[in-house]
Design goal:
2 domains; 8 helices; flat; transmembrane; Cobalt transport protein; transmembrane helix; ECF_transporter_component
């Protein structure tokens, strides 16, 4: 959640959250490849319109690659190989649309905007606080890991010793980082019971209504279809 890209269109954060949830429900409630592919194509187009096409290009290529394996190579491969790789291939196919929807949310939404959207849809405050801390925590921990790795390189520590000398500082850093982030976020008044105000106010536009409506219709169609058939 760094610099927000400038795309051809902009979606309200609530629409992106609903799109992510509906994508996850639909993809994992159906076994039809055509449905998963339709979601992948639609989300790919939306990603390009939002200006994050470069972020999801590799995922789309991976989807195309595993689809070729699933439907072109598996029929002519030995059953032993198919049995070993089928779960992995199906998992990639199922998770790709979810990944695209998640990238749309992550890459085009700041943490403050996400908090605002979650509060507007009445998301539990305790979960919002936990989510915000987590989103700050992992990037900070990754940065600490790089610092530790650089220090070990300067001391020319390699092999098993590198794991040994990296693990303890990383554990201590993880604990300290969590404590510091918790204190920093609380100091900013995130747990204040009063209603929060935001500099940028989001609003639902026509395209957001279309995305939300299409998401709900897709979920209803697939769920009703699964019940009837």
């Amino acid at each position: 959640m760094g610099v927000i890209p400038n795309g051809v269109i902009k979606l309200d954060d609530r629409a992106k959250i609903i799109l992510l949830l509906s994508t996850s429900i639909c993809v994992f409630s159906t076994g039809k490849y055509i449905v998963v592919t339709a979601f992948t194509v639609i989300l790919m187009l939306l990603s390009f319109l939002l200006g994050i096409g470069n972020k999801i290009f590799t995922a789309v290529l991976n989807y195309a690659f595993v689809s070729i394996i699933e439907y072109q190579l598996f029929p002519i491969m030995p059953e032993v190989l198919v049995a070993n790789f089928n779960i992995l291939i199906v998992t990639v196919i199922k998770l790709t649309p979810c990944y695209l929807a998640a990238q749309m949310l992550i890459q085009t939404t700041s943490i403050r905007m996400l908090m605002q959207a979650l509060e507007k849809i009445k998301f539990p405050k305790a979960l919002i606080i936990a989510l915000v801390i987590s989103m700050r925590y992992f990037p900070a921990l990754k940065e600490e890991r790089h610092h530790i790795s650089d220090a070990l390189k300067l001391r020319n520590i390699k092999g098993i010793k590198k794991i040994k000398f990296a693990l303890m500082p990383l554990m201590v850093s993880a604990s300290n980082t969590a404590e510091e982030l918790s204190q920093a976020i609380i100091a900013r008044g995130i747990d204040n019971p009063a209603k929060r105000t935001y500099e940028i106010q989001s609003s639902i536009q026509v395209i957001d209504v279309f995305v939300i409506g299409a998401s709900f219709l897709a979920v209803l169609y697939l769920l009703i279809g699964n019940v009837l058939y």
